[in-house]
Amino acid sequence: MEAVDLNLPINPEMPRRKDYRIGCIGSGFIMRDCHLVAYRDAGFHPYAISSRTHGNAKAVAELRGIPHVYETWEALIRDPQIEILDIAVPPDRQLEIVREAVKQAHIKGILCQKPLAMNMREACEIVELCEEAGIKIGVNSNMRYDQSIRALKAVLDRGYLGEPVLATIEMRAIPHWQDFLHKYEHVEILNMGIHHIDAFRYLFGDPERITAVTRRDPRIAFKHIDGISQYTFQYGNELMATSLDDAWAWPGEGTEQDIYIKWRVEGLDGVAQGTIGWPTYPERTPSTLEFTTKRSPGKWHRPAWEQVWFPDAFQGTMAQLLRAVETNTEPEIGGRDNLHTMALVEACYKSIAERRTVEFSETASKIKSYTFEGGSPL
Length: 378
Fold this sequence. Notes:
Blueprint: E1 21-25, H1 29-42, E2 45-50, H2 54-64, E3 68-70, H3 73-77, E4 84-87, H4 94-101, E5 109-112, H5 120-133, E6 136-139, H6 147-157, E7 164-172, H7 188-204, E8 209-215, E9 228-234, E10 240-246, E11 260-267, E12 270-275, E13 288-293, H8 313-327, H9 335-354, E14 358-359, H10 360-364, H11 366-369, E15 372-373, E16 376-377
Parallel strand pairs: 1-2, 1-4, 2-3, 4-5, 5-6, 7-10
Antiparallel strand pairs: 7-11, 8-9, 8-14, 9-10, 11-12, 12-13, 15-16
Helix pairs in contact: 1-8, 4-5, 5-9, 7-9
């Protein structure tokens, strides 16, 4: 029986320098209770904050010990002391901020929210603007830093499961859809499912084919296409990765709820399964992983940790950007890489609209056709 190493690397690699001055745009839940809590615990340096509502920004600054508060994000980005920009606003507003931020010579890195934009064209423009300005761009695809997903990646890389055959994610959740989404028809896949799509890419790479189906959520009053979604990725080695995203999640209001995110990966030599602890937030419930492998037959391995997805994973998304700035390398979750995640989102919607399986090349090709030079389409 071969020994199995349970020393699984779940913690992010930190930059040598932690005191980069971070300018924070946004003061909602994600910034207040995730970004800033994670940064405090990691020893990072939020230097300034602004928000749509100045009073909210001031309150968060007092709560989290941020020394400078600006009336507007335009004033914040012009502060020459700011080195890193941390954007936590609705994704349909990110492009206008990036367009102005890249004009500031003192900004070295930008962390954008996911989705990077509401469509591929704007996502490509954001990436091109940053690249042309020599600014590192990272994307806050924080499920890659969930501890169970991080540990699963190590289990796969060490070959404990052998060649993967089937991967599944099942989500039952009742999200709060922000008001800005009410003017868009694309809801669940672009804003929730994108976590799972990006996690599949992190674990297995880009697929060859995508098949997706969806229906409306009976609870949602505004016009939308996707409330309950299922999408399947097919790879060249026959691996199937499929996610069922149930944002209706009945039983719902007024009855007993059963809210969870579960995942499972089956391979030729073993199986791993786990849960994401997020649905219990703000209670700190760590995500879980258990796996069994032919290398130690008849035994389940159950590593454990104290960290949780929200807010601890947000240390990783900022750390990977700071390391990229520090070493002049591409971030682990860089903008260029994230365009492939956006292309998969678009492939899902194309599959739904045309009621067919879509080749990934059909949407990935748009990454090149949407290239910008000097802010103008080629």
